[in-house]
From TrEMBL:
<dbReference type="InterPro" id="IPR001233">
    <property type="entry name" value="RtcB"/>
</dbReference>
<feature type="binding site">
    <location>
        <position position="387"/>
    </location>
    <ligand>
        <name>GMP</name>
    </ligand>
</feature>
<feature type="binding site">
    <location>
        <begin position="233"/>
        <end position="237"/>
    </location>
    <ligand>
        <name>GMP</name>
    </ligand>
</feature>
<keyword id="KW-0436">Ligase</keyword>
<feature type="binding site">
    <location>
        <position position="265"/>
    </location>
    <ligand>
        <name>Mn(2+) 2</name>
    </ligand>
</feature>
<dbReference type="GO" id="GO:0005525">
    <property type="term" value="F:GTP binding"/>
</dbReference>
<dbReference type="InterPro" id="IPR036025">
    <property type="entry name" value="RtcB-like_sf"/>
</dbReference>
<feature type="binding site">
    <location>
        <position position="116"/>
    </location>
    <ligand>
        <name>Mn(2+) 1</name>
    </ligand>
</feature>
<feature type="binding site">
    <location>
        <position position="475"/>
    </location>
    <ligand>
        <name>GMP</name>
    </ligand>
</feature>
<protein>
    <recommendedName>
        <fullName>tRNA-splicing ligase RtcB</fullName>
        <ecNumber>6.5.1.-</ecNumber>
    </recommendedName>
</protein>
<feature type="binding site">
    <location>
        <position position="352"/>
    </location>
    <ligand>
        <name>Mn(2+) 2</name>
    </ligand>
</feature>
<dbReference type="GO" id="GO:0042245">
    <property type="term" value="P:RNA repair"/>
</dbReference>
<feature type="active site" description="GMP-histidine intermediate">
    <location>
        <position position="404"/>
    </location>
</feature>
<comment type="similarity">
    <text>Belongs to the RtcB family.</text>
</comment>
<feature type="binding site">
    <location>
        <position position="234"/>
    </location>
    <ligand>
        <name>Mn(2+) 1</name>
    </ligand>
</feature>
<feature type="binding site">
    <location>
        <begin position="352"/>
        <end position="353"/>
    </location>
    <ligand>
        <name>GMP</name>
    </ligand>
</feature>
<dbReference type="Pfam" id="PF01139">
    <property type="entry name" value="RtcB"/>
</dbReference>
């Protein structure tokens, strides 16, 4: 008997998962790579669909979490219109990662975004050959270790630029920085940064607010979070473009085989935490008095409260966008310092934790990347697997959304106990301050990226453009 064959008399694992979900009232069916989740007694709740490659397990915990969000409503009106999940679908603390939930325009679910607001990816390419990169690599690593991990990044800000950041995002912030350039930003090419703003998914669908600004009015402020990657799976990675998969699109975006690239993954840091935690409690407090709390435990907001949440979310989104921009600028400035005048243009910057207004609906993406027709999509692998530049195909069925990675195969707790031989760290160069970070983020802690890419191509969500292989990763 092969090792993959089920033991006689014992149900296969997936059969046990389906049976366990059925006991919780959740009906599960599968057609090809698509899993459908529904509660038969709730005919008014949209069926949730999950796209998974063959051999990828359906997480029962994540399935229950997704169905809870699919059933969210508000007594004053508002419903979930559609619920989908991308192939990196796995359980989160309260919200499954890889979830995409579209609601009617009068309702929002703050917890569907959580605290890592406007976490996203940013990709630059660099015309620098590999041998030349290696020649000055030790100096580059030492400089970036200081900037990214040890707090030597030298990013003082005039308080007016920070207030502009909160209120109106990167364009207003950059205007103030140009008027008063300080620290490393005095060396930056602000004209190039301004032209690159056009290559960002969005600079905020909604106005932000200075309500969340805590810097006071000191003339010069050193924000402890701006220009930092943060914990979890956030990173800054230097890569090489090792394959072009769509020559026409790659040429249009300035991507060539053999180029170096650098990818930034980070979000809104402490500002997102403050906004997310406040609105998690606020949504509960605003629930109409005298009405039973939703059995799902998911609290939506409606009307003026929804508008207030959008303002708060957009404030954190503004912060997250500038944080990624600054991280990339620190890398670009160090590359120029060690290798000469390199353009290192931006290919794309896109979020994967945000609400966007699309086709008249509020599309909540939690660990899912917008994949609008013709626009770039960034799907990272682990630090031991390649990352991909894709082009969105605008699939309406999948709410124009793709995965934001391969998804975790092991929790961080389990990954810490991996045997060194099984962690997949051989040949991986990762700069981190603590050894446990390497185990938590080891390649073996993540699913294989290749089938995740393939199943989304087959589903008509994205098309492949280029593949990048990791050379050097920084983890805070």
């Amino acid at each position: 008997m092969s090792k993959s064959a089920p033991t006689p008399g014992k149900p296969a694992k997936i059969e046990r998962i389906v049976a366990a979900l059925a006991r919780q009232g959740l009906a599960v069916s599968r057609t090809g790579s698509v899993w459908t989740l529904a509660r038969p007694e709730r005919a008014d709740t949209p069926r949730a669909e999950v796209l998974l490659p063959d051999g990828f397990p359906l997480s029962s915990k994540a399935a229950v979490q997704l169905e809870r969000f699919a059933s969210a409503t508000h007594p004053a009106g508002g419903t979930v219109v559609a619920a989908r999940a991308t192939p990196d679908f796995h359980a989160g603390a309260r919200v499954p990662v890889g979830a995409v939930v579209a609601t009617s325009p009068d309702m929002l679910v703050p917890e569907a975004i959580g605290t890592d607001i406007n976490c996203g990816m940013r990709l630059h390419v660099v015309d620098l050959d590999y041998e030349r990169f290696l020649a000055a690599k030790p100096k580059l690593v030492a400089s970036l270790r200081g900037d990214l991990l040890l707090g030597t990044r030298d990013l003082p800000m005039d308080y007016r630029s920070l207030r502009a950041l909160y209120r109106a995002g990167a364009p207003a912030w950059l205007e103030q920085v140009r008027a008063t350039p300080l620290g490393r930003m005095a060396l930056a090419d602000c004209e190039q940064i301004e032209t690159e703003l056009e290559r960002c998914y969005e600079l905020g669908s909604f106005e932000g607010s200075t309500t969340w600004f805590r810097g006071g009015e000191r003339e010069i402020i050193r924000d402890p979070c701006l220009g930092t990657p943060g914990g979890g799976n956030h990173f800054v990675e230097i890569q090489v473009v090792d394959a072009i998969l769509d020559g026409r699109m790659a040429h249009a975006w300035g991507v060539r085989q053999g180029q170096l690239a650098f990818m930034v993954h980070s979000g809104s840091r402490a500002v997102g935490v403050a906004v997310g935690e406040h609105w998690r409690e606020r949504a509960r407090d605003l629930w109409p008095t005298g009405l039973a709390h939703p059995s799902s435990g998911v609290f939506a907001v409606h009307g003026e409260a929804a508008k207030a949440y959008l303002e708060a979310m957009s404030t954190a989104a503004n912060y997250g966008a500038v944080n990624r921009l600054l991280l990339a600028e620190l890398v670009r400035l160090r590359l120029r310092e060690h290798y000469g005048d390199l353009a290192a243009p931006l290919v794309w910057d896109g979020p994967h934790n945000l609400v966007s207004r699309e086709r008249g609906l509020n599309v909540h993406r939690k660990g899912a990347t917008p994949a609008r027709a013709g626009e770039p999509v960034l799907i990272p692998g682990s630090m031991g697997q390649p990352s991909y530049l894709m082009v969105g195909l605008g699939s309406e069925h999948w709410l124009a959304s793709a995965s934001h990675g391969a998804g975790r195969a092991l929790t961080r707790h389990r990954a810490r106990h991996l045997d060194e031989r099984d962690a997949g760290l051989a040949g991986v160069e990762c700069i981190a301050l603590h050894a446990e970070r390497l185990r938590e983020e080891a390649p073996a802690a993540y699913k294989d990226i290749a089938p995740v890419i393939d199943v989304q191509v087959e589903a008509g969500i994205v098309g492949p453009v280029a593949r990048m292989r990791p050379l050097l990763t920084f983890k805070a």
